[in-house]
Specification:
Two copies of one chain form a homodimer. Chain A is mainly α and 289 residues long. In chain A, a hairpin with a 2-residue loop joins strand 1 and strand 2. The longest helix of chain A is centred in the middle third of the chain and has 23 residues. Chain A is globular, with a radius of gyration of 18 Å. The relative contact order of chain A is 0.12. The interface between A and B is large, with 63 and 63 residues. Chains A, B: It is an enzyme of class 2 (transferase).
């Protein structure tokens, strides 16, 4: 089965379990709204590619790691969109969860998606409990404090912010989780895969800053110009558009150079290039500058 | 070391890790505010007692299970107190997290505490990964959808609510987690311990409804009369004060009768009686009715 189909099947199965008989129906509907139809599924696609490059010895654990990653990503979007953060009305081209279901169900949907991620890992891990437990730890640390997504978001409530630390936590941590969890699901060490994830995350953040600064809301499927409007740190403000585009190219070269030696190394390099083309608005940016 | 000290040490260690170097300081302070000084630590105390009754063969795993439970409980209080839910200004006799730190950090503190709980389990579990993984699953299911705390809270956004299902999910699920996680930490089956947790949870909820209906805010350390003010289902509205007190006695008898045969059965019965005396405002209620 192609990676994309395996990832969607794993996410769908997790969602079906969370909506199980006896669940409060509106919260169940809010979970579905938050997760389907998905975005580019970039993080699980990277995770899957790394696991396959390492031989993918326990496919059910690979799929669980991918689903868990995406559920956490969706949870972070739901909470990020809340009125007390970005107050975003749209997400992926439709109303954000709090607009469609109200704020209480949006808070709960985010919480429940985080928990569904750990449920997925625990269920898939009985055959390889040590790998599953390490996946659990990697995901918890990528998402929580002191250096995960929550920490990154927390920096937005501080008066003095280190731009690099902020992006590393808010965006980079889940890309590091994507590469390291791919390796862990395949029974490999996580450490050699940290740099690849970190560099992809960095590239993604610069690309996102460029999109936020340059695109309009219709093309983006969510409000744009948010960073400037909210006075938040971003690469375009720091480096200008041309500087940010040059940084993108550097980072991507480094990402590909960092890939550890593994059976599927060549295909993985190719996948990173493809993902890069998809997430980086390079041609758009070059037209504009 | 007494149970209480082991539990506090494990919670303190988890908090210190979450606040680690490089964390955003205000979010770190919000976590500490949410967790310390603690309340009665009833759930981890029950979990510890069950693990000890089963021999407590891996004390570090028992302590991790207790800390994880309490972190989740604290997370649920932080999110419950948010303006979009209870809008509670006080908790444990001091300002609630969103009052002290603002709403964004309260949302993030709840999220980060959930994640810290799973980090604790993953770190403690390397020696007994299968037990740790089962603890992860038990905690995720007790907290998430379709039947955990989030589901319980989600029922408050529905127009038709089954009172028993609502209480089972919102309050009972974490007591079931307390007893079953105690057993799992000791390498035992969870199933025989479900009933004890369910009955303690039921008793606790009835006691809480009585306190909410009868006590004043100073004695309670948080706003009272919330259920009636918000039109929420509760046992006093359903049964009256005397009926609710009689139900308490019934439930407690059933809880003690349900305790499975185990090495520390007698001490465990005694502990349940002690906890019951602590959480049940029986003498207070008898003075009032």
């Amino acid at each position: 089965m192609p990676s994309r189909d395996r990832i969607e099947a794993a996410i769908g199965a997790a969602l079906t379990r969370a909506e199980g008989p006896g669940a409060p129906p509106r919260l169940a509907a809010a979970l579905r709204h938050a997760v389907l139809p998905g975005g580019a599924r970039i993080r699980p696609t990277i995770c899957h590619a790394v696991a396959r490059a390492c031989g993918d010895p326990v496919p059910s654990l690979t799929d669980a790691a991918c689903a868990a990653l995406e559920l956490i990503h969706c949870a972070s979007l739901v909470h990020d969109d809340l009125p007390c953060f970005d107050d975003a009305d749209m997400r992926r081209g439709k109303p954000s969860v709090h607009v469609a279901f109200g704020e209480p169900l949006a808070v709960l949907a985010g919480d429940a998606l985080i928990l569904a991620a750990f449920d997925v890992l625990s269920r898939a891990g009985e055959a390889e409990p040590l790998s599953a437990l390490r996946l659990t730890g990697a995901l918890a640390r990528a998402t929580g404090m002191p250096h995960g997504i929550c920490a990154g978001q927390g920096w937005e409530s501080e008066t003095e912010v280190d731009l690099a630390a902020y992006h590393r936590a808010k965006t980079g941590s889940l890309f590091v989780a994507a590469t390291t969890m791919g390796a862990l699901a395949a029974g490999e060490d996580a450490e050699p895969w940290v740099e690849l994830g970190a560099r992809i995350g960095e590239a993604f953040q610069v690309a996102d800053d460029l999109r936020d600064a340059l695109m309009d809301a219709d093309a983006l499927g969510k409000p744009c110009g948010q960073d400037a409007a909210l006075g938040r740190p971003n690469a375009v403000a720091e480096l200008g558009v041309e500087g940010a585009v040059a940084r993108l190219d550097d980072i991507l070269g480094g990402a590909i150079a960092s890939i550890p030696s593994c059976p599927g190394e060549a295909q993985l390099c190719e996948m990173v290039r493809r993902q890069a083309a998809q997430i980086m608005p390079v041609s758009l940016v070059r037209d504009l500058v």
